[in-house]
Specification:
Length: 107
């Protein structure tokens, strides 16, 4: 398989599961714009980690492969969230479960 396809494959694999990890830090009360920003930043960070894990820090010398991995993570994370995790209600459920709610004070 070519190096570009391997980079895209790595990016797609990481990106497909990323929305579940992002849901842990996101809160249901956040605006859609803010959630999207957090998701994009998380995808870029995950892409950098995926590039480093796949080929080490020297892998960043190959701009095309690095870009392919970063874009693969971003595209796969957004697509898998919209087509799989949001309709299945799993990501929103994780958001709700990881949100602390203040218990009413009884005095």
């Amino acid at each position: 398989m070519s190096a570009t396809l391997e980079s895209l494959s790595t990016g797609a694999q990481v990106g497909a599961l990323l929305p579940l990890l992002t849901a842990v830090v996101q809160k249901p009360a956040w605006s859609a714009k803010y959630k999207k920003g957090v998701a994009v930043v998380a995808a870029l960070i995950a892409g950098v980690v995926a590039v480093a894990a796949d080929g080490g820090w020297t892998q960043f010398q190959h701009g095309q492969l690095t870009a392919a991995t970063l874009l693969g993570v971003l595209a796969a994370s957004q697509t898998s969230y919209d087509l799989l995790w949001k309709p299945s209600k799993l990501a929103p459920m994780i958001e709700s479960m990881t949100t602390r709610t203040k218990a009413p004070r009884t005095e």
